[in-house]
Amino acid sequence: MLAGKQHFYLAGDDPFGFNEMSFEGYMACASCHIDGGHDGRTWDFTQRGEGLRNTTDLRGRAGMVHGNVHWTGNFDEIQDFILDIVNEFLGLGFLPAGQAPNPPLGAPNAGRSAALDELAAYVASLGRDSLSRSPYRNADGSMTAAAMRGRSEFAGQGCRDCHAPLSDHTDSVNGASLHDVGTLRTSSGQRLGGPLAGIDTPTLLGLWETPPYFHDGAAGTLEEVFRIAGGAIHEAEHGTLAGGARIPGFAQINQDSTFHGQMVDLPQAGARVTWTGVDGGSGGLAALEFRYTSGRAHDFTLLVNGSPAGSASVSGQRTRLEWKRLRFEDIPLVAGGNNSVTLRLETGEWPRPALDHMTVSTVDDRLAATPHRRVLSLDPARRDDLSAYLLQLDGRDDNGTLKPRGLIFRDSFDSR
């Protein structure tokens, strides 16, 4: 296990750059999963046939205890990470010279290399005892009264159907358990080179310290989990630019690996981007989300099919390079692909905002997201109770005692 942890952290020490983990010692597992945790980032894995992927926290999962790994369940053993080591990190992969990794879900990579098996042993050691205790619990470690009430809401809303308490709040135990719960977007990519039918159910253990949420990091907060739906992404540069909106005439830096195409600057009041041919699905109330970056406060106006549909004032950011999301809820769209959407800058300080893209969640997309969005029907107090429960799931029982995973008698007890 110690040897596996050393592999986990060691990017390489070959002065010529030919390292087992990565070329020129560029990165290691711990680069994104320090101490087995996560970096809070969303990465673009489109080049490997996936899509935007939020870094997974490895703690509490004990390697393969929750079935296949990755958001799409495309690896059925920890040793399959040799595919990332060889194909993405450009490492040698701990295999004898001339040997190549076996494909995902194919012949085992386990047993081919002592180092790979040691690495897998370390990842498998990251069980419930590696999870931090939730600070939302009482001082003695017990669940709060609100969380105990929230457990009933959790059951009443059908959350247990996929996030089963008996199995670490996931139904993914053997293999992959893919569900389409209305969170897929056109940036979600593929699975093993084919269509992506759904996302493998993540555990809820340690939820309090693992934002952003969803496979693509689309939900920055727990409240957004209950609201955000999937849909179609429209790049800003594909819209019609007017009022001074422009694509900068210089190479743009890929700020966090999730930036596609080019950003569109809105340098002055009246600058706007208009998207035409926007599909409204079967027609009805949609949600529009704009991803932008800026350093100051700004005012925006939204126009849909030529008419004002909303306005918003946004606050400044800590740095110029932060992504923010501007959301408009319950926006009427007509059925079919004949909608136009315009986002216009009204006022604001320099530096002006820059748009990355717009996400359109039609009424159909929102309906598909009912497994999460049904929580919006709860009154605020009951929703707060549910959130309290979710934020206190840390692998411990009601009294704060860390218990081993698994059940005693399925019909009577669970280890929650």
- Rg over CA atoms, rounded to whole Å, is 23 Å
Main beta sheet: strand number and arrangement?
5 strands, antiparallel
Mean pLDDT score: 92
Order of helices and strands: HEEHHHEEHEEEEEEEEEEHHH
Shape: globular
The chain-level structural class is alpha+beta
Tally of strands: 14
Distance between the termini: 27 Å
Describe this structure in words.
The chain is of the alpha+beta class and 416 residues long. The chain contains eight helices and 14 strands. The chain has helices at 2-9, 82-87, 114-124, 145-156, 222-225, 363-368, 370-373, 380-390; strands at 42-44, 52-54, 178-179, 199-200, 232-235, 240-242, 264-265, 272-278, 284-293, 298-304, 307-314, 323-333, 339-348, 354-361. Helix 4 (145-156) crosses helix 8 (380-390). The radius of gyration is 23 Å and the shape is globular. The two termini are 27 Å apart. Mean pLDDT is 92; it is low at 407-416.
Provide a short characterization of the protein structure.
By secondary structure, the chain is an alpha+beta fold. It is 15% helix and 19% strand. It has helices at 2-9, 82-87, 114-124, 145-156, 222-225, 363-368, 370-373, 380-390; strands at 42-44, 52-54, 178-179, 199-200, 232-235, 240-242, 264-265, 272-278, 284-293, 298-304, 307-314, 323-333, 339-348, 354-361.
List keywords for this structure.
single chain; 416 residues; alpha+beta; 5-stranded antiparallel sheet; 14 strands; 15% helix; 19% strand; globular; disordered C terminus
